[in-house]
Each structure stands twice: as structure tokens, then as C-alpha cells.
Automatic annotation (TrEMBL):
Cell location: Membrane
Protein name: P-type Cu(+) transporter
Residue ranges constituting the HMA domain according to the UniProt record: 72-138, 150-216, 225-291
Region (Disordered): 28-66
Membrane topology: Multi-pass membrane protein
Native organism taxonomy: Eukaryota, Viridiplantae, Streptophyta, Embryophyta, Tracheophyta
Family annotation (InterPro entries): ATPase_P-typ_cyto_dom_N, ATPase_P-typ_P_site, ATPase_P-typ_TM_dom_sf, ATPase_P-typ_transduc_dom_A_sf, ATPase_P-type_domA, HAD-like_sf, HAD_sf, Heavy-metal-associated_CS
Metal-binding in keyword set: yes
Protein's organism: Urochloa decumbens
Transmembrane segments: 316-337, 387-406, 582-601, 621-641, 940-959, 971-992
Main location: membrane
């Protein structure tokens, strides 16, 4: 298998042949995405360039020479690539950068060679582009330095808008040793790439906290396999030393950190050499039972953090209500009840009344204790020169509160001054904002339910089988599923969940894999078959040997992929980011202008301001309008418009088996107007079978198939597998050994060639035979035409330069293929089929599924060229394929959709992974993208609509005609409602249903 896979990869990258050059060849394999930078014109001005033709030619020659001198070659070591799709993904990412002349990637050597222009792009930018798609990249001469580059994740509390995320990003980017920082508002997380020799993770936390936000470390990036163990028992220096030395002695242990306050030990280890169960056993045995260890409760998990934040906002809101309700009643209700009004208006000191004193006392805790977070956030935001929502709230409430204090104190020191206070404005404003944040966090929490549901698929416990030295089962033990180690044997009973990825070593059953792969029917499992963690065993008992545990499992990869997608920003979000950078300062200026206009209007009582009542204090009127403008214009909703919709959409997609790799893929998918389909494994089931054999020479059928199967056994092509499987049926023994194949050559899309039993056997299509110098007899051509008319593929077999037979293979078309193509047409999406198969079969398949435009007998690189041609014609192209031979086209397309990803989701080069392998999911992916961006557009309408309509009303445009004023606390409620409405509008995507024709 390894040899055949290696051969396939070689053929994908080098076009076949027995020999492969160890050097990278800088020749285009996939079309370059960016424009090539213009060469600088050397010498002369515009007037000189309009001179003689000779001067122009000399100038052009000098420019070309300068361009050649500016070109630079950089070689990167790329780790994590495992297939041609990975290499294609790297090449695509690099070629999208400006200033890239060419790029070539060698998947076997793990190298990427880039020819670029330093004036337009640097080695660091190229390396970052490679790492952005999930691979590790090192500049060859900087290997030592790159070993110290880590990526850590932080949870950040208290962010309210894109201004907050920009503040945190700027602070982190400016920190020495930080190469890149990305902050996501919807997930409230930051991902930082840093040099651990210059900066430590705790310093990054401190940098975030200096901006006014609280940071919690999720992972330092130092390792992927880390476990937190809870220690029960009395710890002293001697026991700590014993624990550290005992654990460090275990093979595979890389790092140990002991937290005596939390009674926690954090251990980094290599899963191939040790595991959590071994660590716990060593801890307990080394301390003679004085210390016991267990998995540390994940109190800092995402859900626990969210519940903690919800609890804090709920408590703050309830406390604010206790003080705010009496303030509201004394200022707006009791003043209209005769008995209570007289009591509240009774003077205490000079003109200061009991009601004013009560409101002052009750509103003070709300302003300074409950509202303390707004003060601290505003102070730190101003210190960093990036004002946010906290600044607007602090300015608005403080203006109302301190003017009220001034008014009340002046009344207390005067015998004739009638005070007017706005204590209810400040306290009610804070209360409504806290209510809005509470509702917003409740709603935002539902956007990430998809991840929680995925994580809940894993069972809490597992049954571990204990074997003796001879491999016999001598007992079983129930353990925490997080304690499973590599090579453990787990017992799975009927109705139970598979606790870990692995393969069956005993038993047979049917396993429901719909929660992972989307396959609705239970899949039969027997000895040697693989199983996926989180799936459900239907009937029989299975013994499963664990192969991938912890972060390496398929479920963990899917969770990481969804989390990464939710962290990524969609390009459309740049619109909100650009507005937020200037929005808060603009609002402050606007509110000051509003106050100034109304204040001056009151001073000029009379025409044209005769509509202002003479009894109204112009300062108070202007103050109310200014505060209302300041509060209603908070940009919270604008920052939530895109990320919440993207989070919900990626979660919904994951629940339907559609893994969307970030906002970029989601945004591109809604623009698609042309889809290029591969045939084998995409439009067809991908499991062809041999339906007929026609021999053109007298020979034994079994001997014929022995030679053909020996050659095709080295190929991973579905047609080759079908022939090998058919050949096995001609032998009674289960594991028949084929003759040795020498000098094997594979040409993708054409066929294979090998020497079998001293015969040169060539198996492939008509063009492969002609290129090999083999004459095809008329009888064979007639058979090929007959098979093609039946939508069957005719494979020619030649031995010693003579055609000896034709094998007919049929690959059934997928159910609903015709309906899918028809539905795409109704969505104004054009469908094209590109296949390496012959024209006859391709046309027959095209007629059956309803595709008119067909390209047959195309090599992998020709598929990519066709995609590029469509793009140059102005179309937004999606490519649907199996992600192996179709990888050049997948990475060249605007959106690559991989069908049949199975469990290997982390290494796919496509932008969208269709795990169910159902063709109708292509329609669902595009439809989901379109509906998501409809939600995003509506979110911007909601967010900007509140401001466009609300700011003029808050500024008092209706007051001259209707005497209508928007009280500041009502403006605050409207601002809170805007954020909640945006999040709720995004949450409606949770109820997304696939198009009725395909949904079930």
C-alpha cells in the first residue's frame, strides 16, 4: 500500500515515469492566482519614452534585466503534507500572494521552492501563507530559529465590538517576539504566533490585560498532547521532587509543571511512548499511595467560561435592578401620585428634596460599583488610543450622573435654584446595557453549539480489555475515555459508542457512522475494518485496538477544523473593521456637536427657534440629546454582524457533514456560478465493477487476469481496483499472490505499464496505446464504441505490443445526480464535467445526468487549466472531486469541494469537505453559503439601520415638530436591542434546512 501510494503521488507531481528527479522543477503545475508585478521602467521620463523605438526597446530590455536581477529563490521545509492535495494547497496559497513568479512543491521531500520578487513579498510572508493553511514551514537556513516559533491560544473576556478586537490585536502585534496575532470577537479567542526565546505565554496574557481585558490561556502551542492531572493528597517539597523525577523518567515525557495551589500537574508527552494512564500509575506508585491522581476537571473549558460570564452579567443586572427600580419609580411614577409626590418634594437642605437625595444615593452604587467594568475598560482603551463602546457608555452615564450631582449640590446651597437631575438616566442606562449584554451572551453561546454537540459524541467511559502475555483476555476494566492510550484494546458492546479511532481485531457488527460521515445506513464491520470514535455499535460485540487517541482522533480533527473556521474572518468583515476604527471618535464629535447646536439654539430664543419653550433650560435639553446620540451609536452590533453568522453557518454545515474551512470559503461559495465535476467517484459511485471481458487471442481467462491484475495492483485508481477485485474471484484462495511486476510505470489518466512474466503488459485507454506505438485492430475499436454507448469504460490490454483483450468496467451513476444538476441549473449555476475517461463513456454519462459541456481524456493538469480558462472568462468556479487526482483543479478553483473525505479531514486541500460523499451536499453547501450571506447583509442593515435612523432621532430632529425626545435610557435600550437582534438574526440559521428536493 505504501509503495503504491508513493507511486501515485509521484505520478501526480511528475507526470508518470519510473524515475523521479530529486530536484524541484520550477514549472507551472497549477495556475498562478495573483497578477505578476509590473517591471520597473529603467531610465528616462514619460517624454523620453515617447521618443524613438530604439530607446523604447532599450528601456524595455533594461526593465527586463532589472526584473531578472530582482528575482529571488527561497526553499522552505514544509511538514504535515501527506498527499498531492496537500502540496497543491500549499502551492495555491503561495501563488495567491503578490510578487510570486512561480512555485513548486515536492510532497515526498517536504520542500517548497518559490521564485519571487522581494520588492513585493518577503520570505516571512510566504512562510505565513503556508502556515495559514495548516502546515509548518521553515526557511531552510532558518531551521534553528523556526523551532522556537510557537502558536498559543487565549480566551479573552470583555470584548464588545470590533474596536476591542483591533485594540487587542494591535497590542499583541506590537509586543516583541510576536509575529502574528488574530482575535475573533464571536469566539472571544486570540491566536498568537510568537518566538518563545523572546516572549513567554504569560507575557502575552499580561499584554492583553493591559488593554483592559482578561485573558485565560487555552494552550501554549508547545505541544499537542498535554494533560492536566488533579492531585489529591498533601503536597510537600519532598513529594513534589519525587513526582517530578518519577514522571520525567518515563519515556516520551517532555515537560512537567506543578501547581501546588490548584493541586494540578500539567504534563506534556509523546502519545506513541506513554499516555495518561501510565502517568497516573507512576504518580500513585511513586508516592506509595499517599497521592492519588485523576483527570483534572475542565473548569476552564469554553462552556464553563461562558456559563461563568452569563452568571456574572445576570448577577450584575439583578443588583442594578435593585437600585434602579426605586430610582425609576421616584422620578417617573411617584411624582404623579399626590401623597407620594408631596413627600418626595419635601426639602432637606435649602432647595434639595428628599426624592433627589434618594435618587443620588441609589444611583451611586450602580454608577461606580456595578458599572465599574465600563470605567476600567474605558480608561485602558483611551490609554491605548482606541476608544470603544466602554468609552461611550462611561462618557454618557458620567455626564448624566455628574451633571445631576452638580444640580443637586447647587440646590442644597441655594434658596431659589430649582434642580433638575438625570440620575434615572445613568442608572437605567447601565441596567439596560447589562441586560443587553446578558441576552447577547446567551444568544452568542448558541452559535457554538455545533462544537459542543461534536464533543459530546465521545463517550465518557470505555471498557478496557486486559490481556496476558499470550494475548488472551483475562479481565476488563471501566476507565475514563480520556485515559485511553495508543494500542489499547477497547470492548464495544451493542448500543455502545466506539470510544476511540481504531480497527477491529475481533468480532463483527454494524456501526452507525451517520454522526461522523453522514452515512445513513449502518456499515458492516469485521476483523481488520477501521472504526471511528463517537460512532454507535448497532449489534454484535467488537474488540477495537486504539490507533488515534486524543487530539489525533477524527472527532478531534473535525472539532479543530470547525473551531479554526470560526476563528477565521470573512473578507466582508473588513467593512465593519474599517468603520469601527473611526466610529467611536466620530460619535463623540457628533454628540458634542449635537449638544452645542441645541445649547446655542436655546440661547437664540425666538425666530427661527421659537418652538423651544422659554421655560426649558437649553443646557439640559442639549445634554439629553448629546447623551442619547452618544449611547445609541455604540458599534457593538456592527462587529457581531459577520462573525456570528459565520459561526452558526460553519456549525450547521458541520452538523450536516459539510466542513467549511473558514469565512473565505463560505464567502466565495455564495458567488459560484459554474461548477466543474469530476466523473469517477463524484458523479458516479466510485466503485466500478467489471461487467464484461472480450479476448482477442486464444488464452486462458485466469492467466489473462493474472497478468492484468499484477500490473494494476500497484495503482490506486478505482478502475484498477475493480479489475484486481474481479481477478481475485477467479481464484479459490483468499489471498492470491500475483506475479511480480517489474519496471512499473503509471501515467495518470491514461494507464499503467509493467513487465509481468517476461511479458510487457500495457493496460490503459486508446491514447495510451497509440502513444506506446501499439496498433489497435478494427475489432477492438468496434468493441470500444459498443461499450461507450452503454456508458461503460473499455480498458485495452496489450501484451508484447499486441492488443489481446478488452475489459469493460461500469461505474454506476450516483442517485439523484440528474436532480442535482437540474437543481443547480435552477440556481443559475452552470455544470461542466471534466474526466480522464474516453469521450464515448463521458458523453453517455453526461447525457444521463444532464450535463451538456463535457471535457474527456483530460490529465490532472488539464483539469486545472480548464478551471483557469473559466476563471479568466469571468466565472466564479467551484471544482468537485475526490481530492487526489483532482487536486490540481481543486486548488486552482475559487472553491474546492472534496467528495469522499472519510476520516482524513485535516489534510484535505479543498476549501469545503463533503464528508457524506453525497452529491446533493454540493447544492446544500452553495445554498447554505447564499443564505448565510443574506443573513450577513441583513445584519448590516440591522446594525447600520439603528444608527442611521436612531442617531437623527436621538439628536432631536423630531423635536421641533412633535416635541418628541428620545430619553438616553431608551437610547441605551435601543443600542442593546440592536446587538441582540443581530445575534438572533444570525441564530435563525440554526434552523436551516437543505433544499426540499434533497433534504430529509
Amino acid at each position: 500500500m505504501a509503495a503504491s501510494t508513493r507511486t501515485l503521488f509521484l505520478s501526480c507531481f511528475h507526470g508518470g515515469g519510473a524515475e523521479v528527479s530529486p530536484h524541484l522543477a520550477l514549472r507551472p503545475r497549477y495556475p498562478s492566482m495573483p497578477r505578476r508585478p509590473r517591471p520597473a521602467v529603467v531610465g528616462g521620463d514619460a517624454g523620453e519614452r515617447r521618443g524613438s523605438g530604439g530607446d523604447l526597446e532599450a528601456s524595455k530590455g533594461a526593465a527586463e534585466k532589472a526584473e531578472e536581477e530582482e528575482e529571488k529563490v527561497a526553499v522552505f521545509e514544509v511538514t504535515g503534507m501527506s498527499c498531492a492535495a496537500c502540496a497543491g494547497s500549499v502551492e495555491k496559497a503561495v501563488k495567491r500572494l503578490p510578487g510570486i513568479h512561480d512555485a513548486a512543491v515536492d510532497v515526498l521531500g517536504g520542500r517548497a521552492q518559490v521564485l519571487f520578487y522581494p520588492a513585493f513579498v518577503s520570505e516571512e510572508k510566504i512562510r505565513e501563507a503556508i502556515e495559514d493553511i495548516g502546515f509548518e514551514a521553515k526557511l531552510i537556513n532558518e531551521e534553528v530559529r523556526e523551532k522556537n516559533i510557537l502558536v498559543c491560544r487565549l480566551h479573552i473576556k470583555g470584548m464588545t465590538c470590533t474596536s476591542c478586537t483591533n485594540t487587542v490585536e494591535s497590542a499583541l502585534q506590537a509586543f516583541p517576539g510576536v509575529q502574528r496575532a488574530s482575535v475573533a470577537l464571536a469566539t472571544e479567542e486570540a491566536e498568537i504566533r510568537y518566538d518563545r526565546r523572546i516572549v513567554a505565554a504569560n507575557e502575552l496574557i499580561q499584554a492583553v490585560e493591559e488593554t483592559g481585558f482578561e485573558a485565560v490561556l487555552i494552550t501554549t502551542g508547545e505541544d499537542r498532547n498535554r494533560i492536566d492531572l488533579k492531585i489529591d493528597g498533601v503536597l510537600n517539597e519532598r513529594l513534589i521532587m519525587i513526582l517530578e523525577s518519577s514522571i520525567q523518567a518515563l519515556p516520551g515525557v517532555e515537560d512537567i509543571k506543578v501547581d501546588t495551589e490548584l493541586h494540578k500537574i500539567t504534563i506534556s508527552y509523546k502519545p506513541d511512548q506513554t499516555g495518561p494512564r501510565d502517568l497516573i500509575e507512576v504518580i500513585e506508585s511513586a508516592t506509595s499511595g499517599d497521592i492519588t491522581a485523576s483527570i483534572y476537571p475542565q473548569a476552564e473549558g469554553r462552556e464553563h467560561r461562558r456559563y461563568g460570564e452569563i452568571k456574572r452579567y445576570r448577577q450584575s443586572f439583578l443588583w442594578s435592578l435593585i437600585f434602579t427600580i426605586p430610582v425609576f419609580l421616584t422620578s417617573m411614577v411617584f411624582m404623579y401620585i399626590p401623597g407620594l409626590k408631596d413627600g418626595l418634594e419635601k426639602k432637606v437642605v435649602n432647595m434639595m428634596s428628599i426624592g433627589e437625595l434618594l435618587r443620588w444615593i441609589l444611583s451611586t452604587p450602580v454608577q461606580f460599583i456595578i458599572g465599574h467594568k465600563f470605567y476600567s475598560g474605558a480608561y485602558k482603551a483611551v490609554c491605548h488610543g482606541s476608544p470603544n463602546m466602554d468609552v461611550l457608555i462611561a462618557l454618557g452615564t458620567n455626564t448624566a450622573y455628574f451633571y445631576s450631582v452638580y444640580s443637586v449640590l447647587r440646590a442644597a446651597t441655594s434658596e431659589n435654584y430649582m434642580s433638575t437631575d438625570f440620575f434615572e438616566t445613568s442608572s437605567m442606562l447601565i441596567s439596560f446595557i447589562l441586560l443587553g449584554k446578558y441576552l447577547e451572551i446567551l444568544a452568542k453561546g448558541k452559535t457554538s453549539e455545533a462544537i459542543a454537540k461534536l464533543m459530546d459524541l465521545a463517550p465518557e467511559t470505555a471498557t478496557l480489555l486486559i490481556h496476558d502475555h499470550e494475548g488472551n483476555v483475562v479481565g476488563e476494566k471501566e476507565i475514563d475515555s480520556r485515559l485511553i492510550q495508543k494500542n489499547d484494546v477497547i470492548k464495544v458492546v451493542p448500543g455502545g459508542k466506539v470510544a476511540s479511532d481504531g480497527f477491529v481485531i475481533w468480532g463483527q457488527s454494524h456501526v452507525n457512522e451517520s454522526m461522523i460521515t453522514g452515512e445513513s445506513r449502518p456499515v458492516a464491520k469485521r476483523k481488520g475494518d477501521t472504526v471511528i470514535g463517537g460512532t454507535v455499535n448497532e449489534n454484535g460485540v467488537l474488540h477495537v485496538r486504539a490507533t488515534f487517541v486524543g487530539s489525533e482522533s477524527a472527532l478531534a480533527q473535525i472539532v479543530r477544523l470547525v473551531e479554526s473556521a470560526q476563528m477565521a474572518k470573512a473578507p466582508v468583515q473588513k467593512f465593519a473593521d474599517q468603520i469601527s476604527r473611526v466610529f467611536v471618535p466620530l460619535v463623540i464629535v457628533l454628540s458634542l456637536l449635537t449638544w452645542l447646536v441645541w445649547f446655542l439654539a436655546g440661547r437664540f430664543h425666538g425666530y427661527p427657534y421659537s418652538w423651544i419653550p422659554s421655560s426649558m433650560d437649553s443646557f439640559q435639553l442639549a445634554l439629553q440629546f448629546g447623551i442619547s446620540v452618544m449611547v445609541i451609536a455604540c458599534p457593538c452590533a456592527l462587529g457581531l454582524a459577520t462573525p456570528t453568522a459565520v459561526m452558526v453557518a460553519t456549525g450547521v454545515g458541520a452538523s450536516k457533514g459539510i466542513l467549511i474551512k473558514g469565512g473565505q470559503a463560505l464567502e466565495s461559495a455564495h458567488k459560484v456560478d459554474c461548477i466543474v465535476f469530476d466523473k469517477t467517484g463524484t458523479l458516479t459511485i466510485g466503485k466500478p465493477i467489471v461487467v464484461n471481458t472480450r479476448l482477442l487471442r486464444n488464452m486462458v481467462l485466469r492467466e489473462f487476469y493474472d497478468c492484468v491484475a499484477a500490473a494494476e495492483d500497484n495503482s490506486e485508481h478505482p478502475l484498477a481496483k475493480a479489475i484486481v477485485e474481479h481477478a481475485k474471484k477467479l481464484h479459490s484462495e483468499e489471498n492470491h499472490i500475483w506475479p511480480e511486476a517489474k519496471d512499473f510505470i503509471s501515467v495518470p489518466g491514461h494507464g499503467v505499464k509493467a513487465k509481468i512474466n517476461d511479458k510487457v503488459v500495457i493496460v490503459g485507454n486508446k491514447s495510451f496505446m497509440l502513444s506506446s506505438g501499439i496498433d489497435i485492430p478494427m475489432e477492438a475499436l468496434e468493441i470500444l464504441v459498443e461499450e461507450e454507448e452503454k456508458a461503460q469504460t473499455g480498458i485495452i490490454v496489450a501484451m508484447d505490443q499486441e492488443v489481446v483483450g478488452i475489459v469493460s468496467v461500469s461505474d454506476p451513476i450516483k442517485p439523484n445526480a440528474h436532480e442535482v444538476i437540474s437543481y443547480l441549473k435552477s440556481m443559475n449555476v452552470e455544470s461542466i464535467m471534466v474526466t480522464g475517461d474516453n469521450w464515448g463513456t463521458a458523453n453517455a454519462i453526461g447525457r444521463e445526468v444532464g450535463i451538456e459541456k463535457i471535457i474527456a481524456e483530460a490529465k490532472p493538469e488539464q483539469k486545472a487549466e480548464k478551471v483557469k480558462e473559466l476563471q479568466l472568462s469571468g466565472k466564479i468556479v467551484a471544482m468537485v472531486g475526490d481530492g487526489i487526482n483532482d487536486s490540481p483543479a481543486l486548488v486552482s478553483a475559487d472553491v474546492g469541494l472534496a467528495i469522499g473525505a472519510g476520516t482524513d479531514v485535516a489534510i484535505e486541500a479543498a476549501d469545503i469537505v463533503l464528508m457524506k460523499s453525497n452529491l446533493e451536499d454540493v447544492v446544500t453547501a452553495i445554498d447554505l453559503s447564499r443564505k448565510t450571506f443574506f443573513r450577513i447583509r441583513m445584519n448590516y442593515v440591522w446594525a447600520l439601520g439603528y444608527n442611521v435612523i436612531g442617531i437623527p432621532i436621538a439628536a432631536g430632529v423630531l423635536f421641533p415638530s412633535s416635541r418628541f425626545r428620545l430619553p438616553p435610557w431608551v437610547a441605551g435600550a435601543a443600542m442593546a436591542a440592536s446587538s441582540v437582534s443581530v445575534v438572533c438574526w444570525s441564530l435563525l440559521l440554526r434552523y436551516y434546512r437543505s433544499p426540499k428536493k434533497f433534504g430529509s
